[in-house]
Inverse folding.
């Protein structure tokens, strides 16, 4: 371990209890003090397991077999007690509620220092300073359950700051957050990265938003191995051809540049851009901007005519505690539409979707399903028409085995067991879940639970499918697979409603979009018109995907430049055949 090395992982392997497959497989990794490191890899590759090894939760609290060693700031994690290690390494998890121990903000932030028996004056000082850094000082006396998702994540961050660790690990801290809250959390991480005394480790799918602060990139594969380590530009240049194989997210700007580079000779991969500004320079250097000017954009049609799959008329809804979630909502979802329902946390999206499936008691004449008043339909009749995938998969699991979970809806419909087995095994193979047929659904990883929840609905292929954050916790490969499957179903006439915070999904897959704010719909129309409406975007605190930001910046100078919504769209705009680069 050199003087600058603060983390030294040597030949690290780890097996969870009762597992024959290692979660980590001979990992070797050095991280220098003051670096910001991004760890990328497909779902289930061991990223979170590695994080738990770095602060001693493995092996001190989570049982299993560990080989090799982890040296953190000169301490061997096997030999030093957990309370010493947690003072050196702090972790913020993707769901802050899993790490809360108290009821009030100040108590939560004080919890760590109190357990280390710091003097009361020191504890008060640390609580105040930490809450001030995350802009929550005025919420010091507030109950945690009164906070938004973004505010809870900032409390988790303040709790870590109160311990003042040298090393800070963020394990997908924005996965549950809307775009505005995501920006807040990343802004704080960006500010911390400027402190040379802090070493930051990020496990994050949203690479576009943080790639500019990353010093080192670590790439893991599905076998729990580290396959590449180095500076971001160098690593991205090396793995662009292997992205589909690795199943990881890369910056949209880099993917677009890689696709364009296949049309030109002599482009070195070390020139691949990472940011919007670099992307514009890249396009200008190759004269691509002028080549694309005046190109006809793909026509976008929104289904407005025809029968309604779902019709909502002046619907208001108030929860028993007095919270009004919906205020006079009216919405038409045409048959065959692919509607994205977007808006910030607490805007009413999930409540509206649950009203669409009769989960709440609502007045007559407010929600119609394929022309029928939903209040006149039985649960069984509704379930035959519409399938619902919850944001949190655990909320819909009813069986003790994965196979039975997928088979449940078919058996309720009295499908023969031979056909049940064929359909269940086909869809489990589709979602790479066939090896878990005997496993309890609750024992799966978050990504696996999400795939299972989608599979349970798709196996019966209802005419209407509502999905709340369908790609939550998924790597690039699985996200792409789920969304392409939904697109195929939509092409076959199925109606899809997708609730999401991921505006890149909206840009690529949705036919239409409805924007919610404070229980109301403030926009309903095409995706293109939304992205070109800065007033609505700003009012709803939505963010344009990076390529749309790039396109709009170029249009400030060249108004006839087309809007590029996603990397593959370059083929449509340039009228090119998709080559091997289409897999990039």
């Amino acid at each position: 371990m050199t003087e600058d090395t603060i983390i030294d992982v040597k030949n690290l392997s780890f097996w969870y209890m009762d597992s024959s497959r290692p979660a980590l497989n001979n990992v070797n990794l050095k991280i220098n003090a003051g670096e910001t490191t991004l760890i990328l890899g497909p779902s289930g590759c061991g990223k979170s397991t590695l994080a738990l090894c770095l602060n001693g939760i493995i092996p001190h609290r989570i049982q299993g077999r560990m080989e090799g060693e982890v040296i953190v700031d000169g301490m061997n994690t096997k030999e030093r007690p957990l309370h010493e290690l947690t003072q050196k390494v702090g972790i913020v998890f993707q769901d802050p509620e899993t790490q809360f121990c108290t009821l009030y903000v100040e108590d939560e932030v004080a919890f760590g220092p109190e357990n280390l028996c710091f003097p009361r004056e020191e504890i008060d000082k640390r609580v105040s300073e930490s809450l001030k850094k995350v802009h929550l000082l005025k919420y010091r006396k507030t109950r945690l359950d009164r906070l938004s998702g973004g505010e809870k994540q900032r409390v988790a961050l303040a709790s870590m700051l109160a311990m003042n660790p040298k090393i800070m690990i963020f394990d997908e801290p924005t996965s549950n957050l809307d775009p505005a809250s995501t920006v807040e959390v990343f802004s704080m991480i960006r500010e911390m990265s400027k402190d040379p005394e802090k070493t930051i480790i990020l496990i994050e799918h949203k690479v576009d938003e943080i790639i500019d602060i990353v010093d080192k990139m670590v790439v893991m594969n599905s076998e729990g191995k580290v396959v590449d380590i180095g500076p971001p530009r160098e690593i991205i240049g090396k793995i662009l051809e292997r992205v589909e194989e690795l199943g990881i997210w890369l910056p949209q700007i880099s993917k677009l540049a890689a696709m364009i580079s296949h049309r030109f000779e002599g482009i070195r991969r070390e020139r691949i851009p990472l940011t919007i500004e670099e992307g514009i320079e890249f396009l200008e250097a190759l004269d691509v901007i002028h080549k694309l000017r005046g190109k006809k954009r793909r026509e976008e049609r929104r289904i407005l005519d025809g029968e309604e799959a779902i019709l909502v008329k002046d619907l208001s809804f108030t929860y028993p505690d007095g919270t009004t979630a919906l205020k006079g909502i009216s919405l038409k979802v045409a048959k065959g539409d692919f509607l994205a329902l977007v808006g910030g946390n607490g805007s009413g999206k999930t409540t509206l979707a649950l009203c669409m499936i009769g989960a709440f008691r609502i007045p007559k004449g407010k929600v119609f399903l394929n022309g029928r008043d939903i209040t006149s339909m039985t649960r069984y009749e509704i379930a035959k028409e519409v399938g619902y995938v919850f944001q949190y998969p655990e909320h819909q699991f009813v069986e003790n085995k994965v196979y039975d979970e997928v088979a449940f809806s078919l058996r309720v419909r009295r499908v023969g067991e031979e056909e049940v087995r064929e359909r269940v095994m086909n869809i489990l193979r589709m979602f790479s879940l066939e090896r878990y047929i005997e496993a309890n659904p609750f024992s799966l990883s978050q990504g696996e639970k999400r795939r299972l929840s989608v599979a349970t609905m798709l196996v019966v292929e209802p005419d209407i499918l509502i999905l709340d954050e369908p790609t939550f916790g998924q790597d690039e490969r699985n996200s792409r697979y789920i969304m392409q499957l939904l697109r195929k179903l939509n092409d076959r006439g199925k109606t899809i409603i997708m609730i999401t915070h991921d505006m890149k999904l909206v840009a690529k897959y949705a036919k239409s979009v409805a924007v919610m704010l404070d229980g109301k719909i403030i926009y309903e129309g095409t995706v293109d018109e939304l992205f070109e409406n800065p007033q609505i975007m700003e009012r709803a605190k939505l963010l344009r995907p990076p390529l749309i930001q790039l396109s709009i910046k170029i249009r400030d100078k060249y108004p006839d430049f087309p809007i590029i919504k996603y990397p593959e769209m370059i083929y449509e705009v340039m009228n090119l055949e998709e080559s091997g680069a289409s897999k990039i």
Observations:
- The first helix runs from residue 47 to 54.
- The mean pLDDT is 88.
